[in-house]
Amino acid sequence: MTEIDKITVSRMQFYGYHGALPEENKLGQRFFVDVDLSVDLYRAATSDQLDQTINYAEVYRLAQKIVEGPSCVLIETVAERIAESLLSAFQIAESCRVKVVKPDPPIAGHYDSVSIEIIRKRSIAYLGLGSNMGDRAGFLQQALRELDNTKNVSVTRCSSIYETDPYGPVRQNDFLNMAVQIETLLPPAALLEATQRIEADLQRTREIHWGPRTIDLDILVYNQDNINVEKLSIPHPEIARRAFVLKPLLEIAPHLVVPGINRPVTELWQNLNEEEGVRLWKRNDGAGEFGLFEN
């Protein structure tokens, strides 16, 4: 793995009112905070310009705002808010490590301190969207809006919309399908919850397997992660066999290497036996909302 440069601000000291005990919320206590930001510092180092790096004073100010702000029960929440604030403020930062220390917690016993440490990173994910009920294009547009308005998620690229024959044994209407690239601070499980909330908001039901739906949002790829748990498999297990997934993905990420399979989307598309049944329905020409819909 390639090493990346870091900016570190250590042992920042603040006074806050966080904790599960009443006296912590009333009397407050000291907190120490360490922050590491992973960022490419080549431009800053060669230009000697402050606007090419991260201002340490601003790191301090943002951490101070969280620690000295509204109280939290858990210092885990304090750390999460600091990481989120820093990554939102500094787009050049790839990841963030935050350590929050309670040097004097009101706990009986002999110890030096208690602390938690978290690492959060900026991630790229690819999602597949589909609809074959009612106003199909309208459901895609609403899903994109909700996705882009989800906290810590930004839609960065959209494919054209393709009309596709339905997949599976259930007789139903043709689908409209597309793929999108997003940038997110959400971990995979939280991103899944966000997509399922959008599906619920748009009246998605799961009564028939492979049945008709108002909207379907599938996480296709998340960074280069391989995840296989009860409710989530990434990359999507059917990604290499579905033309309606690969065709729009080919448009926005042809050289994306699918983890696990370790082959680029271009090669997967070329090796697909059944490329028919996927027809261009609306080209993304860059005009209107997401390049697809009239304003």
How would you describe this structure to a colleague?
The chain has 295 residues and is α+β, with helices and mostly antiparallel strands. The protein folds into two domains: 116 residues, GTP Cyclohydrolase I, domain 2 (2-Layer Sandwich), CATH 3.30.1130.10; 160 residues, Alpha-Beta Plaits. 28% of the residues lie in helices and 31% in strands. It is built from eight helices and 14 strands. Strands 5, 6, 7, 8, 9 and 14 form a six-stranded antiparallel β-sheet that branches. The protein has a four-stranded antiparallel β-sheet with strand order 1-2-3-4. A hairpin with a 2-residue loop joins strand 10 and strand 11. Helix 3 runs antiparallel to helix 4. The longest helix has 15 residues.
Would you spell out the secondary-structure blueprint of this structure?
Layout: E1 6-16, H1 22-27, E2 29-39, H2 42-47, H3 56-67, H4 75-89, E3 93-102, E4 114-121, E5 123-131, H5 136-149, E6 153-158, E7 161-164, E8 175-184, H6 188-201, E9 216-222, E10 227-229, E11 232-234, H7 243-252, E12 257-258, E13 263-264, H8 265-270, E14 278-282
Q: What are the defining features of this structure?
A:
295 residues, alpha+beta, Alpha-Beta Plaits, 6-stranded antiparallel β-sheet, 31% strand
Q: Give the helix proportion (percent range).
A: 25-40%
* CATH homology superfamily name of the largest domain: 7,8-Dihydro-6-hydroxymethylpterin-pyrophosphokinase HPPK
The CATH class of the largest domain is Alpha Beta
- The sequence of SSEs as H and E is EHEHHHEEEHEEEHEEEHEEHE
Largest sheet: 6 strands, antiparallel
What CATH architecture of the largest domain do you see?
2-Layer Sandwich
Q: Whole-number average pLDDT?
A: 92
Quickly count the helices: 8
Low-confidence stretches: none
CATH topology of the largest domain: Alpha-Beta Plaits
Give a count of the beta strands, DSSP E runs of length 2 or more.
14
Q: How is the quaternary structure best described?
A: single chain
The fraction of residues in strands falls at 25-35%
